[in-house]
Amino acid sequence: MSQLDPALCAEERDAEIARIEAQEGAAGRRRAVAGFDFTFSVPKSVSVLWGVADADLQAMIVEAHHTAVAEVVDYLEREVVATRTAWEGGSFRRVQP
Predict the structure, then answer these.
(1) Is the pTM of this model over 0.70?
(2) Which of 11, 36, 38, 68 has the most CB atoms at less than 10 Å from its CB?
(3) What DSSP state is assigned to residue 6?
(4) DSSP bridge partners of 70
């Protein structure tokens, strides 16, 4: 509270302290939620193969990678990804794309 404007009168200071306490109290109810990042990069061996391949094989490798990523994202959307819908995280529902 030492960072409040010293020019505030007692009533304004009390009001500002109450506002800050209410804000901090509301923030204290937040809880961490686990999350995940997905990385869709190919293994080094695939990168090496792509680097030494001719254009036709490179195109096949790229197409295979794009197909694999699309299938994984479809699976995640259908079976894995969920979001909280109730206050305080009480219930879950599946996210539909």
Answers:
(1) no
(2) 68
(3) T
(4) none
**Can you tell me the distance from the alpha carbon of 58 to that of 31, in angstroms, rounded to the nearest whole number?**
46
- The pair of three-digit structure tokens given for residue 41, joined into one six-digit string: 């990069």
Confidence of residue 93 (pLDDT cuts 50, 70, 90): low
pLDDT tens digits, 16-75:
888 888 877 766 666 666 777 888 999 999 999 999 999 999 999 999 999 999 999 999
- Residue 78's CB: how many other CB atoms inside 10 A? 12
Domain boundaries, the chain: 1-30, 34-94
Helices marked H in the chain: 10-28, 44-52, 55-75
Q: What gap in Å lies between CA 90 and CA 5, rounded to an integer?
A: 41
Instruction: Pull the structure tokens for residue 23.
Output: 């804000």
What whole-number distance in Å separates Cα of residue 19 and Cα of residue 13?
Answer: 10
- The torsion angles phi and psi of 2, rounded to 5 degrees, stand at -70, -15
